[in-house]
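Below is a filled-in request sheet from our internal design queue. Each sheet records the structural input a requester submitted and the sequence that came back. We keep these sheets so that new team members can see what a complete request looks like end to end.

REQUESTER: design group, bay 2
PRIORITY: normal
MODE: inverse folding
CHAIN LENGTH: 402
BACKBONE (tokenized):
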């Protein structure tokens, strides 16, 4: 029997009642739910980092919520049919987000690949098999020139070509029989075409629209805002402020496009998204993370962030000329409080950039940022026990510079 036939058969096989009991010892051997006492950081020589910055992939995103870890640990001891799991998780996520359909992806970049692939192939099995090397002219995806960014490579991964436009009129003129999608990067510093005009032109030409909002919560309302505007597909990162697994993300929107995206994804064999697997623990974890995020007391969380900033500022202001102020980034990405710290460089003879370097090279290693004449201290990713550690390390560095 071929492997493909075995996989197809598993879709409809029920779980045998005696299976769990007969394999307990094996499962306990490969994945024990008990917490390990091994220090893997020490064992591998990896430096733990305190993140006094923002959610960055190279710093492993954010720290998962206890509910997420519970979901991951609580599901690691049994197998699951991945088609069924994506069905059930997707349905629950769609219900929470009040949209037609949803799926868990391996991050927002994967969601862009799958969304573009869905717009190109639909449910055509031959096109799905051929991506990214479809015969004939390349599919085209329209983007504003000011929205071009590193991650639009996820679009061209599918074989599509990006067509740049600057105005509504240029967008209208760019529409043709090869146009498969229009992508709006929500985190762009500037937009020459508004959300509303972008949607209007695309809808007039019946071209699906995709909005990349990877880092655009908080506020929680953004999870619902853009689909209400009319975008056909929306993606958010799972491993940023939603605080799910870093290698997970959300793709949601129109049911037919989500269905097509899933056909282009694992566990289907050999479509373009096959290398972008999401394991079962990440799917359960992403579900738990989104549920936790939506149900969270966001006002209380915001006040806690402000309190952390004030706590650090109070510990630093005892140093002559050192002052601080809370700054809330206007967004849409990373729209949360940071603490800006500044001082008289004639009195405290060190630059913010030098403070950042000293924090990073110290013990513990702390990652912060500098901008112009400011030291920028992120507070939203700190554990409660790390707030004073960060404040005292900055205080120590500044005092030595007097």
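RETURNED SEQUENCE:
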């Amino acid at each position: 029997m071929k492997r493909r036939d075995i996989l197809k058969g598993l879709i409809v096989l029920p779980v045998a009642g005696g299976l769990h009991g007969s394999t307990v010892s094996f499962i306990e051997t490969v994945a024990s739910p008990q917490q390990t006492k091994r220090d893997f950081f020490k064992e591998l020589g990896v430096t733990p980092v305190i993140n006094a910055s923002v959610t960055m992939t190279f710093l492993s995103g954010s720290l998962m919520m206890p509910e997420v870890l519970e979901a991951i640990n609580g599901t690691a001891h049994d197998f699951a049919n991945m088609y069924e799991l994506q069905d059930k998780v997707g349905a629950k996520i769609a219900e929470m987000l009040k949209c037609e359909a949803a799926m868990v992806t391996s991050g927002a970049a994967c969601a862009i690949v799958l969304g573009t692939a869905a717009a190109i192939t639909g449910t055509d099995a031959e096109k799905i098999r051929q991506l990214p090397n479809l015969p004939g002219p390349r599919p085209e995806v329209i983007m504003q020139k000011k929205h071009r960014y590193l991650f639009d490579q996820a679009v061209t991964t599918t074989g599509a070509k990006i067509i740049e436009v600057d105005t509504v009129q240029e967008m209208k003129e760019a529409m043709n029989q090869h146009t498969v999608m229009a992508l709006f990067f929500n985190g762009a510093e500037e937009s020459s075409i508004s959300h509303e005009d972008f949607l209007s032109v695309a809808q007039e030409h019946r071209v699906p629209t995709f909005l990349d909002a990877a880092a655009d919560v908080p506020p929680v309302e953004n999870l619902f805002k853009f689909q209400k505007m009319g975008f056909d597909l929306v993606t958010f990162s799972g491993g940023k402020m939603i605080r799910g697994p870093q290698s997970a993300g959300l793709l949601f929107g129109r049911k037919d496009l989500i269905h097509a995206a899933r056909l282009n994804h694992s566990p289907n064999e050999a479509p373009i998204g096959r290398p972008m697997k999401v394991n079962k623990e990440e799917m359960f974890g992403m579900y738990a993370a989104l549920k936790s995020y939506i149900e969270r007391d966001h006002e209380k969380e915001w006040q806690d962030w402000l309190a952390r900033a004030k706590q650090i500022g109070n510990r630093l202001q005892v140093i002559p000329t050192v002052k601080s102020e809370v700054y809330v980034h206007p967004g849409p990405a990373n729209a949360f409080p940071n603490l800006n710290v500044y001082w008289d460089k004639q009195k405290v003879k060190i630059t913010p950039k030098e403070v950042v370097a000293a924090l990073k090279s110290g013990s513990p290693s702390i990652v912060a940022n500098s901008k112009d004449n400011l030291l920028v201290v992120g507070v939203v990713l700190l554990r409660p026990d790390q707030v004073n550690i960060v404040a005292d390390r900055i205080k120590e560095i500044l005092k030595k510079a007097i």
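SHEET NOTES:
- The longest helix spans residues 298-316.
- Confidence is low (pLDDT under 50) at residues 1-33.
FILED BY: M.R.
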